[in-house]
Amino acid sequence: MHFTKLLSSILLTLLLMPASLTAAQQEKWKLVWHDEFSRNGRIDTTKWTYEEGFVRNDEPQWYQRDNVYCLNGKLILEARRERKPNPTYNPDGKYYGQQRQFIEATSGSVQTRGLKEFQYGRIVVRARIPVGLGSWPAIWTLGSCKVPWPSCGEVDIMEFYRIDNDPKILANAAWGGDTWELPHWNTKRIPFSHFTAKDPHWAEKFHIWRMDWDEHAMKIYLDNELLNNIPIDSTINGQLAGAGINPFRNPHFILLDMALRPSDGKVANFPLPMKYEIDYVRIYRKQ
Questions:
Q1: pTM for this one?
Q2: What's the domain count of the chain?
Q3: For residue 12, is it within any domain?
Q4: Each residue's pLDDT tens digit, 32-84
């Protein structure tokens, strides 16, 4: 009796296997938006807008257009050591950027806000990231719904930075909690050594980050290795603005930035300049 059941199970598996393979092979993705950065000079402003000034997180860099350029088929976001007066300086100002009399470093950040949003699909970015002290490059998205962070939703497809001086590559999502100071996070922090153990020259090469996003989950990959699988049923905002909304069932826009990590110490000790190089950004929709 047991042998008969086992044989039937094996036969059923063999019968279903070709159908499963065929379904996987037939899964198709249509390219719906992309930038290959196949120009020299300024970015395509029909696709990207610049971030400018001191923007977030008490970061030391001043974002400016001069640090964003295309060269030889790549988008370059370059962090530089550059000291100059802060045009927004106000010693009585409440915002951290107003309180700095001088700019110590400059860098670049771009986003598709107001130009391109997407909801569900696949985003693929090929990039080479700097990994020196202070480096904080990112590929991320924010929800475009009219509620503030974190209730708008944030996905960090890629972040690199040090935690207690230990380099990590991160794949995260954040959404609204019950207080602004305590958003909900689903975070994976993978030691950089996990990648360099397999390839000591990892940092010298371009790599492919990908997010597959549907109504069920956001799956974040690096070179086809799954880093984080975030179930969307779990990402409903708490009691802040946007309470009860699921920000990952709404459109998002893309950001690419080359930030500097304030907790890594003084800008004077960072190995500047540092270049974050992006080969392409592509968005696909499943057919």
A1: 0.90
A2: 1
A3: no
A4: 999 999 999 999 999 999 999 999 999 999 999 999 999 999 999 999 999 99
Tens-place pLDDT, residues 236-263: 999 988 999 999 999 999 999 999 999 9
Q: With a cut of 80, say whether residue 27 has pLDDT above it.
A: no
Helix or strand run (H / E) with residue 195:
helix 193-196
Which residue segment(s) compose the domain that 201 sits in?
Answer: 30-286
Residues 6+ apart with CB under 8 A from 16: none
Residue 112 in domain: yes
Using one digit for the tens of pLDDT, what is the confidence trace for 203-220? 999 999 999 999 999 999
Residue 91 covered by a domain: yes
CA dist 54 and 118 (Å) reads 27
As a whole number of Å, the end-to-end CA separation of the chain is 45
pLDDT band, residue 25 (cuts 50/70/90):
very low
The amino acid at residue 243 is A
241-246 long-range contacts, CB within 8 A, separation 24+: 241/147, 241/148, 241/151, 241/176, 242/145, 242/147, 242/151, 242/152, 242/176, 243/151, 243/176, 245/145, 245/147, 245/151, 245/176, 246/175
Residue showing tokens 């924010």: 142
Residue 149 and residue 142: Cα distance in Å, rounded?
8
Task: Write the CATH number for 185.
Answer: 2.60.120.200
For 60, 121, 150, 186, 269, the CA distances from 146, given in Å and listed in that order, are 28, 22, 11, 22, 39
The rounded distance, in Å, linking the Cα atoms of 202 and 160 is 13
> Does the residue 49 lie in any domain?
yes
